[in-house]
């Protein structure tokens, strides 16, 4: 029983190290030696638990993918909330999650860029069959709904991606970035609703 607990602990230590190294360096630049060093373990032990870098990456990528898209898909599929409530919930919850995981967008998006076929059907399929998509299409059948979905996600994700540049400007050098991002919880629903009301 003790051995099993130790095994679980070692496996989690390896996975946590892999999360850090893969997020920092990406798949191609990461060596199993880097992960072993980060975990404070020898390479043989890492290979005992995870036979290859690919297998370990697949596990971590699935976790990150679910973290990045899983929450938003659940919010967009809520049967009991209005379109406006969905937008507010996405802005609130997604911004909070990204503030706690600022490296997540660049990691997931760079890996999607490197392997688009692996992710494209999963992403577009979930978004295009969501309750949110259905509600948008009913309200604005004259607009390609994908424009609206991409705009919503871009308004949330891009400022987090741009944080290293934004925080170098005079307006944000005093640590105001978090306040700026939290203000977007109110602004994004207003902007999105304005788009919905605008005639093309």
Chart the SSEs and their pairings:
Elements: H1 2-29, H2 32-39, H3 43-49, H4 53-76, H5 83-100, H6 104-114, H7 116-128, H8 131-139, H9 145-161, H10 163-166, H11 177-197
Helix pairs in contact: 1-2, 1-4, 1-6, 2-3, 4-5, 4-6, 5-9, 5-11, 6-7, 9-11
Quick recap of the structure?
The protein is an all-alpha fold and 200 residues long. The protein contains 11 helices and no strands.
Keyword list:
200 residues, mainly alpha, Arc Repressor Mutant, subunit A, Tetracycline Repressor, domain 2, 2 domains, transcription
* End-to-end separation: 66 Å
What percent of the residues sit in helical stretches (DSSP H or I)?
Answer: over 70%
Poorly predicted runs: 1-6
State Rg: 20 Å
> What name does CATH use for the topology of the largest domain?
Tetracycline Repressor, domain 2
- Sketch the major β-sheet: none
**Mean pLDDT reading:** 86
Into which percentage range does the β-strand content fall?
under 5%
Strand elements, count: 0
Q: Return the CATH architecture of the largest domain.
A: Orthogonal Bundle
Principal-axes geometry comes out as: globular
Helix/strand order, N-terminal first: HHHHHHHHHHH
Report the total helices. Answer: 11
Look at the helices and sheets and give the structural class: mainly alpha
Number of domains: 2
For the record, the CATH class of the largest domain is: Mainly Alpha
